[in-house]
Amino acid sequence: MQRRNRPGKRSSASSFRWIGGLVVMGLICAGVLVMLAPTLVTNYIRAYLQKDDFRHKVEELVAARVGGSVHLAPILWNDDNATAADFSVDSPVWKLEASGLHAALEFSAIRNGKWSIQNAGADELMVKRMPAGEMSRADEGLAADFDSSGDGIPSFLRRYIPTKTRISGFDVHRFVFEQEGWKISETGLSLGGWQSGEVSVQAKLNGGKLQTPIQAPEQKEPLQFDVAKATLRAGKNQIQVSDATLRWKQGAEATMRGSLKHDTGAWQMLVHAKAVPLDEFLDEWWRQRLSGKVEGDVELSGAHGAPMAWKVNAALKGGELTGLPILDKLVTYTNTQRFKRVVLDICSASFRPQGDALRVENIIVQSNGLLRVEGSLNIRGRVVDGDFMLGVTPETLSSIPGAASRVFVEAGSPGAPPGLKWARVRVAGTIEAPQEDLSSRLVGAAGMSLLFDTPGTLVGTGAETLLKPVLGEDAAKMPGKILDSASGVIENGVNAGSGLINKVLPIFPVK
Fold this sequence. Notes:
Keywords: Membrane, Transmembrane, Transmembrane helix. With about 500 residues, this protein is of the alpha+beta class.
């Protein structure tokens, strides 16, 4: 007899099929949710970014980073493109003002776990580092991850929120940066790509002006340059300039490398300059006597509250020396007109501060076939003190009695051209009226030649000029005849020997 199931009871197989169906449906729903999660997150984000809550969240986030007040104008969205009229940061460390902000958010990248910002930039951006205070937070960075707390996104979707940021670049049409007397203005700025984890970003400047805290001699204002181009790297701690081309007056150009630290204000700069007009750094007296274009290397460094340290190695190109008092005397002594206007084939020196003085070392001045000068010079205020070696050709000394045998008797330096006769020359006095001891020693040599050399050697314009302090104007014109015809002159000269020696001694001690 067939057994029938009791009414109201289900078989266990039916129950299992029902439970299995629920499991399958649950798995399908979970899979659908997983597949839809990025889309749901994107939709939530699209809606959230258009709310004032997001703008306030950005202000709070930036304010927490910089330790000051932040203002962001309402954000206007057009599809994926966002614009804001202005943005500002006011903190003890930084002042920042931007206008005409714009950017595009690539929402499709959210599914790959990244915030991707494209075509970002601003019409104007001003950044100023305040002179006092230090970074309030060592964790300060160029950008921050999106903070999604309190945004209304369900907790099960939060793991899909991106934690990485990528910015393709940032362009500014008019950029201004200021720190500790340095100012970059009227320039275009292009920042390179940046992504989370990086601590610096490459930047390029195009055009504009660079104002420095450096005030050169005879310049009424600190130096200011036109920026042709500049490549640098900006980080949270410093700015490094790897390549910059600057231009100055009268076609001068310089290439520059250096760095500037934000926290201490410490900076250093290496500059190679060329075609720099020398007359810009000379006073009126020297401007009339020395000309040419300067080329050389400059090392500078400084810090907040510390004096600037510097060193210059420079060479003068196309230099000419005219109307220097010692040159005028050499024209008279030697009857060599080339001393009136000396073309400088070599003119170089090193400059550096030494206490309250300016030290000029490794001076080399050469006019081929005429003279060479080597030595050093100290300038303290308007007072000068120099020690030089002067080398001239033997022909130059032929008309100066006693010069070759009693004055130009030093050994020349190994690197000097051969065949020159050398004398040590001391220079002292002021920049406007420097005095040298060479003239007095040439007078002394002429006087000694008058006493000990043959009368035939005391002829020529040079002898006449040099003997005037010894014999007087009339006698100096014909010393040979006087010596031949009047023995009393010799006797009187010998009797007055002490006075003669006093007249011919150098005005400076000779090393």
